UniProtKB/TrEMBL annotation:
Region span, Disordered: 447-482
Species the sequence originates in: Hortaea werneckii EXF-2000
Basic and acidic residues: compositionally biased ranges: 466-482
Domain of life of the organism encoding this protein: Eukaryota
Descriptive protein name: Uncharacterized protein
Length: 595
């Protein structure tokens, strides 16, 4: 048998395998890689982007992404007060404000809640002429404004000028009404001019917790029907402008209006919807005072003692507002004291506020952690990271190396939120400054906080008055050891030096100067070299960058308090024409006592 000839027999065996595999791959590419002319192999292959189509698609996706702004949006209203600056945005829950504001010094705050207007009517022509009555009426009106403001409303005082702008004013003027009914109609005419809202007698004040059902409904600002409230007589009404004008027209057309003393009696049945389930507003009407406070009623009924009776009403109403607040927080007052071994001097202003609020009826504690309890009122003094670092490490001069190697990050917020209990509502009053102005505190709580306590704690009045307050809280477990007088004095010195450093660095950071940016620079005087002063400023920046969460908390609290003061200041400017601001209200402005 003849031997078959193999062309690869002349090649080594390994090379034969390589040549065979190569020939097989080339055959596959030649026969399987050729595309069909009628494109029936796989119609989806043509839809897969490649080459230029793939590059164009990538650019399209990038172009559709949201663009990051390169500058802060235009601010239509003032967003700064002193050294505090803020920006309002719905993205305020972002962990870091600078991610939205693009400004390390500007805090990000939630949009402020709109305050529904609550109106009252005061006719200066009917007010009494004696000084005692004028001052008492002014205090009553100030109490009314302060109580409604604290509950989230915008109090507005109306006068005859608003009533004259109502189209029904001329019709009312042609009627010969009783003085009491004429005042009632002027009040409604002024309310009708303003439109939808709340009409309140200035002796009707909110006296309930913030989440009361009636107050919650009133804060919504939507009143579908004209409503009055059972038991409050003519003390409180809510409704829309059309319903208000219809009620005024119905009262004018009533044939018996000349003998009536209230618009409720002058209008037909069905004009008002009557709400009988409410307990959020107290009205100190003539009938209520007559039944509950006969001593005051007797003085008000006698023309010779009316000034004395009026003077007794402001402290009475203020004490009731204070007691209502105390009953809301039945568990007492907690003054937050994280890191208790080093923060005694920081919380001293908060302790004073708590003692004034307690009025000997509420326990005061200083827990090291924040507990979310709805019946516990918590006051927290939020320090700047520089201040806290100085106190914790007993250092008045620090550098970058010390901060990074010897200090912990965000010690205050971590210590305060170590244990969160409950999910209910809790009032967490953040006090960004060492102490708030007394007037700011009154408008925050809705009543005048007792002040000027007697040193010995004794009361000179027959009944314990607001000058009596409890002693400072005793140290408890978890509060740390009690500091000696020398240690407390040294802590006060460190606190003062840290605050001085922060205030000077704030001023210099704005003006671009170099004087007074740090404790080392202060000791050396203005003649220090510029490098040393800038280094002191750099220490603060390093501390803020090292404690991002504590810094964000401090900025938020400072800006939140500043915005609240700006909001109230703007409102008082609007009311200044009639009341002369907060001080003017106490100087005797106000109308006659309205039963």
């Amino acid at each position: 048998m003849a031997t078959r000839w193999n062309p690869c027999s002349y090649l080594p065996r390994r090379l034969q395998i390589v040549v065979s595999l190569t020939a097989f791959v080339l055959a596959c590419i030649l026969f399987l890689g050729t595309s069909s002319s009628d494109h029936t192999v796989d119609p989806y292959l043509d839809r897969v982007p490649y080459g230029p189509r793939l590059q164009a698609g990538a650019h399209h996706v990038v172009d559709t992404l949201p663009q990051i702004p390169h500058e802060l949006p235009h601010l239509d209203t003032p967003h700064s007060s002193g050294e505090a600056r803020w920006y309002t945005d719905f993205k305020w829950r972002n962990p870091f404000s600078s991610a939205v504001t693009l400004d390390e010094e500007r805090a990000l705050l939630p949009p402020p809640r709109e305050r529904p207007a609550v109106y009252t009517y005061v006719d200066s022509a009917t007010r009494r002429k004696d000084d005692v009555s004028q001052r008492a009426e002014g205090e009553l009106l100030h109490i009314w404004r302060r109580a409604w403001w604290a509950q989230g409303f915008k109090p507005v005082v109306l006068s005859r000028a608003e009533a004259m702008n109502n189209p029904h004013y001329r019709a009312v003027q042609t009627l010969e009404l009783e003085p009491e009914m004429e005042t009632e109609m002027m009040r409604w005419l002024a309310w009708g001019t303003m439109g939808t809202g709340i009409l309140s007698n200035w002796l009707a004040v909110p006296m309930a917790e913030h989440e009361d059902a009636l107050l919650t409904f009133l804060r919504r600002g939507e009143y579908p029907t004209l409503t009055r409230y059972e038991g409050l007589e003519n003390g409180l009404f809510v409704g829309g402008k059309e319903d208000i004008q219809k009620a005024i027209k119905a009262a004018i057309d009533a044939p018996t209006i000349k003998s009536m003393k209230s618009i409720i009696d002058a209008t037909p049945d069905g004009t008002f919807e009557i709400d009988s389930k409410h307990s959020g507003v107290a009205f100190y009407s003539a009938s209520a005072i007559r039944s509950l406070y006969p001593v005051i009623s007797q003085k008000l009924d006698d023309q010779d003692t009316v000034p004395e009776g009026l003077a007794m009403l402001p402290p009475l109403i203020n004490s009731h507002l204070h007691m209502t607040w105390q009953n809301t927080f039945s568990s007492g007052i907690a003054v937050l004291k994280p890191l208790p071994e080093h923060t005694t001097s920081i919380i001293e202003p908060a302790i004073d506020i708590a003692r004034n609020l307690s009025h000997s009826h509420m326990p005061i504690t200083t827990p090291p952690i924040f507990r979310n309890i709805s019946t516990l009122f918590t006051i927290a003094t939020v320090p700047h990271p520089y201040t806290l670092t100085s106190l914790v490490h007993n250092q008045d001069v620090m550098d970058t190396r010390f901060i990074r190697r010897e200090t912990k990050r965000d010690p205050w917020i971590l210590a305060a939120t170590k244990e969160l209990l409950g999910t209910g509502r809790s009032s967490f009053a953040r006090l960004g400054n060492p102490a708030l102005a007394e007037e700011d505190l009154d408008f925050h709580f809705g009543f005048q906080i007792p002040r000027d306590p007697m040193p010995d704690g004794k009361s000179e009045t027959p009944v314990p008055g607001p000058e009596r307050r409890p002693p400072p809280p005793k140290p408890e477990w978890g509060d740390g050891r009690e500091l000696s007088p020398e240690e407390l004095h040294h802590e006060h010195w460190l606190l003062a030096e840290a605050r001085r450093t922060l205030s000077r660095s704030d001023r210099t950071g704005k003006k671009g100067g170099i004087a007074g940016l740090g404790i080392a620079a202060v000791r050396g005087g203005v003649g220090r070299k510029k490098e040393e002063v800038l280094q002191a400023k750099q220490v603060r920046d390093v501390i803020e960058a090292w404690n991002l969460a504590d810094t964000e908390t401090w900025k938020f609290v400072r800006a939140f308090e500043a915005r609240r003061r700006v909001e109230r200041g703007r409102w008082e400017e609007e009311e200044e024409g009639f009341l002369g601001g907060a001080d003017g209200a106490r100087d005797g402005w106000g109308g006659g006592w309205i039963g």
